[in-house]
Amino acid sequence: MTPAGKTISEKILSAKSNTDARAGDIVVCNVDLVLGTDASGPMTIDYFARMGGERLFDASRVAFSLDHYAPPSSPKTAAFHAQVRAFAQRYGGQVFEVGEGISHQIIAERGRALPGDLVIGADSHTVTCGALNLFATGVGSSDLAAAMITGTIWLRVPETIKVVLDGKRPHGLTAKDVALAMIATLGAEGANYRTLEFHGNGVNEFTLEERFVFANLAVESSAKAAIFANDSATTDYLAPRTSARGTAVASDGDAVFASELVLRLDELAASVAIPHSPNDVVPIDTVSNIPVHMVFLGTCTGGRVVDFHEALAVLERGGSRVAPGVQLVVTPASREVYLRLIDDGTIAKLAAMGAIVTTPGCGACCGTSGAIPGDGMNVVSTANRNFKARMGNATASIYLASPAACAAAAVTGHLTDPREVG
Amino acid sequence: MSQLEGRARLVGDDVNTDYIIASTRKRDTLDERVLKRYLLETLDPSFAASVQPGDILVAGRNFGCGSAMEIAATVILAAGIKAVVARTFNRTFFRNAVNNGLLPIECDTSVIVEGDRLSIVAGGESSTVTDVTRGLTLTAPPLAPMLASILDAGGLVSFVRRSPRATCVP
């Protein structure tokens, strides 16, 4: 009997472990990139020392991004940055400075994460990079430190859930709406220990930048990885960024999937995740009376160029004005995004409407830098998590929605279906 | 084999790492001896003050979901809690627990009530959690050998120190 075919995860982890890896196996893999942040970095450095680390396995494959405290708002957070810089000075490894952007966004933009790669990052949203046909997963600081020393990590080869995006995308349906429907259906635990692998004719309805939204939100269903196939969108994204091509990986026709989730695009509509869980998703028209006091456009879910264009279009349809009493906070995911938005006039238009533009990075997402909502405020955000106190105030209520829906709320001052604006 | 006894402290399903320790608290210090004062504060502001060393955290499904921040595991240890018994664990928290010597036990926790006396025997073929108060014994599946050896070493630091190449041999 011929053994069954393999999923993308089984193929990548087979290649990285030099074994015939199957779901359920525990394998030790060679890593292509080890990525830390200013939030996880200080503990990583501490573990590295306690493990007796003397050198990095390969300094060209280790990087830190100063993204969570950007810029530092206290001597203590400034000291975290100093600690990361001093480590890189001594041992090597690259530091992406304050203002360069969010770790996984930067490595995608700079062609540092390629098809077929294994990337580990001490940031759960490292999974975002799977949009580029690679296995990227989040780990803690100790696993990161061990990988910096050994160049390896043990991984349980995950089962895979086949996510089928089916049909044509109706006008106005955003990637965020579909991804929210996906994590609502799967639930908070639905993809724990598993990979989401994306299939179906609907995949081509989304640009590469939009695929990042799906891969990013996958971790809100606890996915270990979230991987798209390699196609022309992948090569078009990478071509101007690197001459390296990586090794495209496709799953076999007879690969074994743990389950299948079909998302019919023509049955979905504008949605919002209500407090305090990203998996608690409702149609936006069922909550349109909720007043909004703060609108946050940014993060590794919704802080890319297409997201700000999507938001700007709605704001302009609504008269290029923000409703009285609404604070509009804009945080590009990276310096590259920021510069492109300056070049094309988006930032000037948003600032003229009264937007507060903050340093590229994680921004207000987890209350570590940027604007903190006031007591009792309702926030609508393009981010990925709306846990109670996530943005630094336990009395605030956070709603998660598409850039278009966030912009619509900025125009009207309450949750609004963006199709009703203008 | 390890054996421990303590008082059950209950939390629910999908307790994320931000709830275990808020990201905003990490801005001020990474010292777990300080941060333990804020353990689970978003769910219950009085929880941290009520923890006694030796308490055992008992959770529902998907304990430790969300951010992969390792301090969520080390703050629990700093509070004097040496084991978490959960219906299921989120994968990143599970790794972080094992890597720091915090014992994660996966079994049906629905019968355990706040304050019950628990007795845990971990290691070997399977682990057991006995609810002494209720006279029930729950069985947990054994850890994968790789994980058991990291836990036996006391965590990933000792494991790597003892044998820097060991992570290359499953």
Structure characterization notes:
The complex is a heterodimer of chains A (422) and B (170). Chain A has 422 residues and is an alpha/beta fold. Chain A is 30% helix and 18% strand. Chain A has helices spanning 8-17, 41-50, 75-91, 103-109, 141-150, 175-186, 208-217, 232-238, 299-302, 305-317, 335-343, 346-352, 403-412; strands at residues 26-30, 33-37, 62-65, 94-96, 118-121, 135-138, 152-156, 160-166, 195-199, 225-227, 259-264, 271-273, 281-283, 294-298, 327-331, 356-357, 378-381, 397-400. In chain A, helix 6 (175-186) packs parallel to helix 7. The radius of gyration of chain A is 21 Å and the shape is globular. Chain A starts with 7 loop residues before the first helix and ends in a 10-residue tail after the last helix. Chain B has helices at residues 17-20, 32-35, 47-50, 71-78, 91-99, 145-152, 156-162, and strands at residues 2-10, 56-59, 83-86, 103-106, 117-122, 127-131, 136-140. In chain B, strand 5 (117-122) and strand 6 (127-131) form a beta hairpin.
Which term fits the overall shape of chain B?
globular
Contiguous helical run count of chain B:
7
CATH architecture of the largest domain in chain A: 2-Layer Sandwich
Total DSSP E strands of chain B: 7
What's the overall average pLDDT of chain A, rounded?
97
